[in-house]
Design brief:
With about 250 residues, this protein is α/β, with parallel strands linked by helices. It is about 30% helix and about 25% strand. The protein binds manganese (II) ion.
Length: about 250
């Protein structure tokens, strides 16, 4: 999206934030739970922000996935009704939106694909949105892995492979140690790094996901980070952050 037109939510509007649903055909229950919440909120929101790890894995916008198709239908329904939907990539679905124009998944939903991080305006306050994995700088092995798979060369090489091969590689990567370690023992963000990011961006607050530790955390000096819940129906986990004129509120499912 263009940086010039900063996304803003203002008077009379309501924004809903969610992340880390880890959706996919492997877990229809979590998908059902998430779609039910979206459906229940649909008439009361004007903006929807999904801040990464929307999907458990994403091998390209041609990924055959019934859950992704169901979510696309739901998001398209929202955007057709005038709700602004914005998506961000996470560490699992970092290839989201890499398809050709007119085929890219976010575009098919009528959604914007956001940079990570990005500043948006919430009721006059600039707020930094991020997935959060880039701030887990204490996990050096993961950051090396991240740098590799986020490089243009790696992505171009990967996306040039046939779909079946990409799906096989994705399965293989699930067993790759660096990635697994990071997922099993989810580190937290480095507060100094977040503080610097906030100060650099000229904001007081950030909203991020990834760490699966929902809540609001003070960083001192009036700086705060708000962490979105992750979703897993089998463990009864899930929730959203709603931001409106009355304030900011995390509701756990
Ligand atoms: Mn994540």
């Amino acid at each position: 999206m263009s940086r010039a037109a900063r996304l803003s939510v203002g008077a009379g509007e309501v924004a809903l934030f969610a992340s880390d649903m880890h959706l996919g055909d492997h877990d229809p229950d979590t998908a059902a739970q998430f779609l039910k919440v979206l459906d229940a909120q649909a008439s009361s929101i004007t903006h929807l922000f999904l801040l990464g790890d929307i999907f458990e894995a994403w091998v390209g916008d041609d990924q055959p996935d019934q859950v992704a198709a169901a979510l696309a239908g739901c998001l398209k329904g929202l955007t057709d009704r005038g709700v602004r939907v914005a998506l961000m990539r996470g560490n699992r679905d970092f290839l989201l939106g890499s398809g050709e124009p007119n085929f890219a998944w976010p575009e098919r939903c009528g959604a914007l694909l956001l940079d990570d991080p990005i500043v948006v305006e919430l009721f006059g306050e600039p707020v930094l949105l991020a997935h959060g994995d880039a701030w887990c700088t204490d996990d050096h092995a993961y950051q090396r892995f991240r740098a590799e798979v986020r490089s243009e060369a790696w992505q171009a090489r990967f996306l040039s492979r046939p779909l079946a091969e990409r799906l096989a590689i994705a399965r293989e990567m699930r067993t790759q140690s660096e990635r697994n370690k990071h997922e099993q023992d989810l580190g937290d963000v480095n507060d100094d790094v977040v503080r610097t990011a906030l100060i650099t961006a000229g904001v007081r607050r950030t909203i991020h996901g990834h760490t699966h530790r929902p809540g609001s955390y003070s960083l001192g000096e009036g700086l705060e980070r708000w962490v979105l819940p992750d979703w897993l129906a089998a463990s009864g986990r899930g929730g959203v952050l709603k931001v409106g004129t009355e304030g900011w509120e995390i509701t756990l499912t």
